[in-house]
Amino acid sequence: MQVGLNISVSEFLRRDVISARDFKRDHFEYILRAVEDLEKSPGSLDGALRGKLAALLFFEPSTRTYSSFQIAAERLGMKVTGFAGPTGSSITKGETLHDTVKMFEGYGADVFVIRHNRMGAASFAAEISDTPVISAGDGSREHPTQAMVDLYAIKRAFGRIDGLKVGMLGDLRYGRTSSSLAYALSNYDVEITFIAPEALQMRPEVIHFLTRRGVTPKKESALKDVARALDVLYVTRIQKERIPDPTEFEKVKGMYEVNLEALREAKPSLKVLHPLPRVDELSAELDGTSYAHYFTQAAGGLPLRMVLLNLILGGGR
Ligand code: NCD
Q1: Annotated catalytic residue: which of 27, 52, 115, 274?
Q2: Using a 6 Å CB cutoff, which residues line ligand 1?
Q3: Minimal CA–CA distance to 297: which of 237, 233, 238, 242?
Q4: Ligand 1 centroid vs 240 CA: distance in angstroms?
Q5: 65 annotated active-site
Q6: Rounded Cα gap, residues 235 and 273, in angstroms
Q7: Could you tell me the domains of the chain?
Q8: Can you name the residues that pair with 80 across neighbouring β-strands?
Q9: Could you tell me which of 316, 310, 302 has the C-alpha nearest to residue 148?
């Protein structure tokens, strides 16, 4: 049990990670503190899960999430199996999620990390298997471990999450990272502004959830109207592959570019986050500035995923 938190480590044991809505503030705080501890003593979890097997089943492409889970599992001493995208697996032959999960269960997987383009895939896998399932991206709805990475990046930059003004910009409708982050942030005393054209604005179910939690988000269409008030600007790419109508994509593409000019009135302490990959919505001219926090954010994915796997599989350190 960590000081001041009302949960114990056993709450994480064999737990599925499907939605950021399933976690309370104390769960997030527990994880963030454990990541801080790990960063203070790197190596302290090395080998903690020796002999266990992680099955990474990525039915959609991935760079950061796949590799950070893979490296995290290996640092913990685990063996890693699975696939990093549809090519190179039997999915191209039509093999189903169900059969894939059942097969890796038979091979003795201790945890599944699943990314899929269909909403509900991770919870389906959790229903048909007793092995813990971690969603690594579920259609356009959720990406709970990215939300933990994002919270950690915010905490690392400001030393706190409470009291901050967070703007989320880009494709909020089809981007799964922004909804998961919004759910996670609803545990904190924050102000959230969704910045997007109407066609890409945050989905009503997310807004209702936040409102019920007492965090009523604001909606804006232009960054310039809010930039000066923000502490955090979370930028996301337009999800070309998820927008159902290509003509809709043509209308919105290139609509935003966060560059130095767009941040002219921003606070010097503003931190810009992005789950990456970026396309043209985040200018490389920010890379060398104090605003850029996205590479530090991505680097936090490794210790965070080590901590999460260790908590779920009971590494006991
Ligand atoms: C995101 C994803 O896959 O949802 N990437 C990631 O995991 N960091 C963001 C995106 O693809 O736009």
Answers
A1: 115
A2: 64-65, 137, 143, 146, 175-177, 236-237, 275-276
A3: 233
A4: 12
A5: yes
A6: 6
A7: 9-142+301-313 (3.40.50.1370), 144-298 (3.40.50.1370)
A8: 54
A9: 302
State residue 167 phi and psi, 5-degree precision. Answer: -105, 135
User: What is the pLDDT tens value at each position of the chain, 317 positions in all?
Assistant: 677 899 999 999 999 999 999 999 999 999 999 999 999 999 999 999 999 999 999 999 898 999 999 999 999 999 999 999 887 677 767 778 999 999 999 999 999 999 999 999 999 999 999 999 999 999 999 999 999 999 999 999 999 999 999 999 999 999 999 999 999 999 999 999 999 999 999 999 999 999 999 999 999 999 998 999 999 999 999 999 898 888 888 888 888 899 999 999 999 999 999 999 999 999 999 999 999 999 999 999 999 999 999 999 998 77
The enclosing H or E element of 233 equals strand 232-235
> Which DSSP state fits 197?
-
CA distances from 290 to 32, 260, 267, 268, 273 (A): 23, 11, 11, 8, 12
> Which two tokens mark 201?
């604005």
